[in-house]
Structures are given as C-alpha cells and as structure tokens.
C-alpha cells in the first residue's frame, strides 16, 4: 500500500495486496521491461544456429593462423578478432527494421531539419566527398598488409625464434592495423543513406503512448488524458535529442539527459507546464521501465574480460570511494539529504548518469536531487574528458600512457561516451582498456543499486519513521522494480554464459548485439529521456536552488572525485605494473 | 507538483519571450559561439577531431552505446584467451577481487552512520 509524503516521495507502508501487481508502477515497470526483453528473445533467438555457424566457420578459417605464435599478434589473430566483431544478430532484417523504427534524430550542424530528413542527392554528395579519402586510405591499407604479410612470413620461416624478425613483423603488423583503422573509419563516412525520420517518429510516439497508456489505465488514470499529455512530453523528448545530436553539443559531450531536464525546466519555469500535459509527466514510471531494460545489459561474465588486474580497479576502488564519500558527506560536509548524498556518490564513483538514475530510484530520491547529481556529473565529465588525456600525455611515461592512462580514465570519468573519447585521444589500446574498465564498472550498478535499496530500507527509513522492521516489512518497503532489474541481469548473464560455452563469441553476438543492443537499448534511451523531460517539467528553479545551499553537493563531488582520481591511479599502477606486469605486457 | 495560475497577458508575453530567447541562444551557441570557443580551449580541437573521426557519441551514458566497449572487450578477451590463458576466466585473484568488493560493501554499509 502506498502513502504519499508531501508531494514528492511515495513510501511503502506495511501491507501487501496482490492488486499491487497491476496497480503499482514498480510492477508495471517490470512487466513492460520484461515484455520488451521477451520480444527481443522471440525476434532474435531463432537465428542462434545461423550465428553459431558463422562463428564456427570463422574459427575454422582463422584460428590456426591466430595461434601460430605467442611472440606477437599475427595477421590471422587480428582477422579472427575483426571477423568475430562483425557477427551480430541485430544485423538481420528484423534487427535493421527495429533500429530504423526506434531511431533517434540524426546528427546535424547548422540546419535542424537535417536531424529528420536527408535527401538522396545530399546523401550521394556526402558519400562522393568522402570517397577520395577512403580510396587513398584503402590503398595504403593494402600496401601495409602486403608488407606485414612478408614480415610475418619471414619471422615464421625462422620458426619465430629470431627476435629481430619477430620485432620487425610486430611493427609491420602494427602499421597495418593503423592503416586498417584509418581505412575502416574512412569507409564508414562513405555509407550515408537518405532518410526521412518524421513518419517513424510519429509511429514510435503512438506505440509509446499505447505501451505506457495501458499501464497507466490499469493504475487508475484515464487513458485518454495520458495519451494527450504524452504527445507534449514526447515532443520535448524529440527536441532534447535534436539538441544533443547537434555537432557542437556532441563535441562538448552535452547529452540528452542535460537537454531533457533543461528544456523541461525552461518550459515549466517560463510559460509553465500545461495542465493537460501533466498526466503524462510520469518520471518514475519511465525511469523504472528503462532500468529493467538496463538490467539486461549487466552481464557478469564481462567482468572477466580484463582479467585479474582490472577487477581491482573497477570493483575494489569503486565501493571504497562510494563509502568514504558517503561518510564524508554525512559527517563532514553534512549534506542534509542522505538520498542526495547517495545519488552523488554513485554518480561520481560508479558511472555517472546511469548509476545516478539507478541509485536515485533505489533510494527513492527526490527529482531535484537526481537533477543536481546529473548536472554535477555532466559538468565534470566534460572537463575531465578534455583535461585528463592532456595530463596523461604530458606527464606519464610514454610506455605507461596507454594502459595506465586508459585504466585511470576508465575508472574515473563518469560517462562512458566521454571515457571512449578520451581513450581514443591517446590511442586504440587506451580506448580498449578505458572502455573495458568502464564497462566492468557499469556491471557494478546492479550490485550498488541493490545494496543502496537494502541500506535505505533497513537503516535510513527505520530512522526516518522511528519504527523497527522485520523481514516482511523490508519486503513491503523494498522498491520492487529493483527485483526486475536484478532478475533481468541474472537471466541474461546466464544466457550469455551458456551461449559462450557453445562457441566463443556467441554470447556477444546474440545478447550484446541482439537482445540488448537490438531491442532493450533501442527503447531504454527514449524511456530515460522521457523521464528526464518529466523531471524538468515538474521542477521549479527555486526548489532546485534549495538543495544547492552552501554549495555542499559541489564540495562533496569535488572531494569524492579527487579521492577517486588518487586511489584509482595508485591501484591501477600497482595492479598493472607491480602485481601483474606479465598480463599488462600481453595487452 | 504546483499548479500554475493563469498569468496576466504581459507576464505571459515575457515568459514566451524568455523561452524563445533562450532557444535562440542555444542555437547560436551550437552553430557560432561553441565552435569559435573551441579554438580557445586547450586540447579541445584535438579531442573533437578524435570524436568525429571515430564516430564516438561523447554524450553516451552506458557501455552498450559505445562500439569501443565491444571491440575492446573482444580484443582483450581474445588476447587473454590466446596469449595469456592463465589470466583468463575465474582465476583466484579475480574471485578474490569480487569477494573483497562484496565484503567492503557489506561491512562498509553496516558501519555507515544512521
């Protein structure tokens, strides 16, 4: 049973009714999230044997070449790697249709219409402009490949026992990889296709209105009122995506979360949120559905990717920073709200916006608290994305820039996109290490959200209500959508591992590049954006300012991030260069 | 959620003016001011070039939105499987890392102030 406290937080009180299963948004989030994931399984899993066949064929073709020597990565090693990367079940026709159906507005520079429409002539002109660069890069790649093949053959003829020949082959292959990378990037620019997104967006809006409207009606709110209001919320969501896809905004790393909150707040604090739109301003409903979808991407096998060294950087530093920062927030900075404190801690120590959303929902934080945490993260992410690679380039020893620098950035920069940009700035290897460390940290969201939900249910709420609680009371109060979030993670982790056991790479091809990216992810971004628009539309500047009194959230963030930077650097150095140097050498 | 009373005509005009002015400023920032400002921020031009060349969405919030996460995972998995198999899979240090993480969370949350 739900009890309203003020007009902000809904708190469960000790009574269970079966009707909650269809009357509470927590459960509706679970049902809707699992409906989409089930659809993903139905759509993609019939292609399992096809993907299995492709991977087996690839292994048959390249594996022997890939394993010729352990002195350096052979050409076959890279060909195996590239071929496996291309096996994606979402590349099937149904996957492509789903991608077009749920596509966000396209990138644009100065004309916002480009976000929705591109004519065939414009696409052809774009391709033609990019073609000379590609042709040049392709020719250079072919030339580099021939040199690499000759060098590898020479090293092989010497039985891979001549150090000089091995080194020469290694260097030639590295040159070929750089040329290959440049050619593949240039090729990507020659594939522009004409599009008209307007019809698809209208269809998507109608589907979302029905999708969420059914649950809203079951929860007792008029279906028609919700649908009318949803049109407004959806239009602001599209506007937020249009702003975030503008070239300059992309370069500054200002994503849709910022624009959704910003436009929502701008409207609500100037002309006001229309009364007729308010039935669709359902922050929690959208956010929790998105979080269940996010759960499917939390795959536990991913943590073994970077092996023993990475786990200490991602999974030991992160909870330590979280706990220390939370303690400092309570005892020294004295943040008035424990929920704001917890949300900032997750935001800063785990992985920015996605962790902030999960934690805020798990501890039932106010919408202004989530807004503040997200705002802080966005500002510092943009700064760190530019400053950290520059510091690493100018101060780190050359041989440690890629691995140590990558691990440091992956463990500290909040947003994954900014981590990738900063990593790519240093080089391909730094990008891989940084993105993988961040990916392992992303997996920690599930653990942190679960622990935060338990902590707030069993400790903080007891203090707030002055009542002790038994096990059954914990169940009543526990945010139920977290169960869906954890269940999605466990189910898809098991599926992922069982597929990988059949043939290496089948898990990523079917789950990562299928149900997660080809279904869950297509809609999760929209749901989060809808929730951020709702936050903005229901937020008053004055209320937001009250949470920022004395700049305490900023002080806490700066302290936590400074501590995070120091600890991550120390642990990354110890793990990669003192404890496991032989592992680092193979990367 | 606060209900908004109907505003007087003058105030409504002011509100709409503010709304459109801010939107116009955002457009100008994206098209003129932002690109101009980049020239004066140290290192910004280079990172923008990297973002454009690699097609990276710098505003992405989760690893599934970044292609580099998948290519990086495949690269590192294959590296460990073929070149350092003793470091791949559920090794003792990996398990100990997970256990330490859970212990830190368990004892840390118990020790936090109420």
Automatic annotation (TrEMBL), chain A:
It comes from the Bacteria. It is a multi-pass membrane protein. The chain crosses the membrane at residues 27-45, 198-220, 226-244, 251-271, 303-328, 372-392, 439-457, 478-499, 523-542, 554-580. InterPro entries: UPF0324_pro. It is found in: Cell membrane. It holds the Pfam family Cons_hypoth698. One of its GO terms (cellular component) is plasma membrane. The keyword Membrane applies. Keywords: Cell membrane, Membrane, Transmembrane, Transmembrane helix. Belongs to the UPF0324 family. This is Uncharacterized membrane protein YadS. It comes from Desulforhopalus singaporensis.
TrEMBL record, chain B:
The chain crosses the membrane at residues 16-38, 90-109. Keywords: Membrane, Transmembrane, Transmembrane helix. The keyword Transmembrane helix applies. This is Uncharacterized protein.
